[in-house]
Recover the amino acids of this structure.
């Protein structure tokens, strides 16, 4: 739709730029997992794109991090299943592609592989799929320039370190969140960062160590040295958040938390809470580092007020923030509060500052931070696909991919999706399947893994509309997850379909809307509501195996829900029953109408004809 316009635009811009610019429709900055994933989708769609990577290899971040090299993302090779989609639910490192060999499960047998395995995998992914990556290209000086010929009213220009200029219609930042977070408090210069600390445990022999931070990197450090140090203290601004309690994979994982044992069993190591910001001060005396006396307001764990022992080493492990330096003299809006390390974006992954500027991968995690998995490979491989589909409709006039179903196919389709697919399973409460009911209510159009927080804009974002809408989302119980909750209590799970709405663990929830919710209702829903109040809602009761296939517990209640909201009989019948009903009744079921009566039934057999004659339906065979 735009190439001709852009060629003319190229000609006009070349005369105004000091160096000849290279043009692409899509520019992706960052050749890590999200940049490669989006590059794969653009290549598959035969789009004009380029991926810029400042290093000489894809995924260079993982050449350095995690520092002690053990990934904490699952590499579960065996599930007892052969279904590829189902297995991706438990493979947290692989990207999506058509190549069955491009899976990290084929690269390592370890449940938590070494990070070098991921670097090798990403390098193979780029080379085998021939993704267009320009290596050793450090992009900077990104700016927007107004252009009325562009669909967004502007284009983006940038340069690399050689002075080569580029410009593109659509810019996607896939640089992750990779700049160490360094607070401005006095004495922060006395600390050594996670990014540069010694990895030799002998350097901590007989030392007293303070670690600033309470995330996975902080505990990764503690686990690596707690057999060498005198003691280790971990300081954070709030209580510890355990991933198995919060159901957020970015919180502290069990693979890293051995020091919790030595703390709770009183073996010198410990945790305490204090605001780690500009108010915190470190001082040095006699070669030792101290936390000086502070105001009571700064210490949030009152029983730990006496922790004023000197330390030999203080290590800063306060996470990472988004790097804005590639942008020229541009003030990018960042998130507020706990989201300040991410750029501020809308639910279509677009910058709040510039049309046509999108974010992919971890940089887009502000949308589901501490809610879902969009900051990690097993989540953003699907949000990258959703972003690509949004851009396909917006810039290429290609509607969101869909599957048309007759009503009798509805149950089998939904049951299969709930029990197999990985996208909605990993991006729970963010991506969902939307079933669009046709105007005559005789068929369904299914669009898969749509960003549900754009539901009110479905026709504008996908190119599809209908007379009613069914949304299928996976959710945890609203009051189940949280750092203060006992997720191992005896009544943590419910049984029986009548208690389905009280389910705590991940389970499907089906919303029915006779018309799309409004923007106002999307914005005014409470924080415990995934979507605005629908006309009807149905919970499918949680299952120990996350397998929702039991006939009485899962399937029958679901069928009755669909029959209620669609005013249709979705039962299936044998051919003999369809024949009998069609000969004796004025109306037949949807199954008989759209299968048997459409010449999809069985041919008449001798036994069927004898049965019909016996019932008086025919006189002779």
């Amino acid at each position: 739709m735009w190439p001709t316009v852009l060629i003319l635009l190229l000609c006009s811009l070349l005369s105004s730029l000091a160096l000849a610019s290279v043009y692409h429709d899509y520019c992706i900055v960052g050749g890590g997992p999200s940049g490669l994933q989006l590059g794969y989708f653009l290549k598959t769609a035969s789009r004009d794109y380029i991926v810029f990577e400042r290093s000489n290899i894809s995924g260079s971040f993982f050449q350095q991090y995690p520092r002690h090299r053990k990934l904490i993302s699952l590499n579960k090779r065996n599930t007892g299943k052969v279904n590829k989609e189902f297995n991706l639910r438990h493979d947290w490192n692989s990207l999506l592609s058509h190549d069955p060999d491009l899976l990290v499960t084929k690269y390592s047998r370890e449940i938590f592989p070494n990070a070098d395995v991921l670097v090798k995998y990403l390098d193979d992914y780029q080379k085998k799929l021939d993704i267009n990556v320009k290596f050793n290209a450090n992009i900077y000086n990104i700016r927007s320039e107004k252009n009325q010929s562009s669909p967004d009213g502007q284009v983006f220009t940038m340069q690399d370190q050689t002075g080569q200029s580029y410009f593109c219609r659509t810019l996607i930042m896939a640089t992750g969140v990779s700049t160490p977070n360094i607070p401005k408090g006095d004495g922060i210069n006395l600390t050594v960062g996670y990014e540069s600390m010694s990895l030799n445990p002998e350097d901590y022999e007989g030392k007293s160590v303070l670690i600033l931070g309470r995330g996975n990197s902080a505990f990764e450090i503690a686990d690596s040295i707690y057999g060498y140090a005198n003691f280790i203290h971990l300081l954070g601004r709030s209580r510890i958040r355990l991933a198995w309690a919060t159901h957020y994979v970015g919180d502290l994982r069990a693979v890293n938390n051995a020091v919790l044992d030595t703390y709770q069993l009183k073996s010198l190591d410990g945790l305490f809470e204090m605001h780690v910001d500009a108010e915190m001060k470190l001082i040095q005396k006699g070669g030792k580092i101290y936390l000086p006396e502070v105001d009571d307001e700064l210490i949030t764990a009152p029983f730990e007020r006496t922790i004023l022992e000197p330390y030999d080493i203080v290590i800063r492990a306060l996470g990472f923030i988004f790097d804005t330096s590639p942008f020229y003299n541009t003030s990018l809006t960042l998130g507020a509060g706990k989201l300040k390390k991410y750029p501020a974006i809308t639910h279509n992954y677009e910058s709040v500052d510039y049309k046509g500027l999108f974010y992919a991968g971890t940089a887009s995690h502000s949308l589901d931070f501490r809610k879902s998995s969009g900051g990690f490979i097993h989540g953003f491989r699907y949000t990258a696909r959703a972003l690509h589909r949004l851009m396909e409709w917006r810039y290429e006039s290609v509607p969101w991919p869909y599957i048309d179903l007759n009503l009798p196919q509805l149950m089998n389709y939904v049951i299969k999706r709930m029990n197999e697919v990985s996208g909605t399973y990993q991006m729970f409460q963010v991506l969902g399947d939307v079933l669009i009911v046709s105007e005559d209510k005789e068929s369904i159009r299914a669009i898969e893994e749509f960003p549900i927080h754009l539901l009110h804009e479905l026709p504008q974002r996908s190119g599809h509309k209908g007379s009613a809408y069914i949304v299928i989302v996976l959710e945890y119980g609203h009051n189940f997850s949280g750092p203060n909750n006992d997720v191992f209590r005896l009544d943590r799970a419910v049984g029986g379909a009548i208690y389905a709405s009280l389910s705590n663990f991940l389970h499907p929830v089906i919303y029915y809307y006779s018309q799309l919710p409004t923007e106002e209702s999307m914005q005014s829903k409470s924080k415990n509501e995934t979507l605005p109040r629908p006309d009807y809602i149905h919970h499918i009761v949680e299952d120990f195996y996350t397998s929702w296939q039991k006939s009485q517990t899962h399937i029958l209640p679901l069928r009755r829900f669909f029959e209620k909201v669609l005013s249709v009989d979705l039962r299936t019948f044998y051919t003999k029953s369809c024949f009998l009903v069609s000969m004796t009744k004025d109306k037949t079921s949807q199954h008989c109408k759209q299968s048997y009566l459409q010449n999809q039934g069985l041919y008449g057999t001798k036994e069927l004809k004898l049965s019909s004659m016996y019932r008086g339906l025919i006189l002779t065979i």
Remarks:
- The longest strand covers residues 21-29.
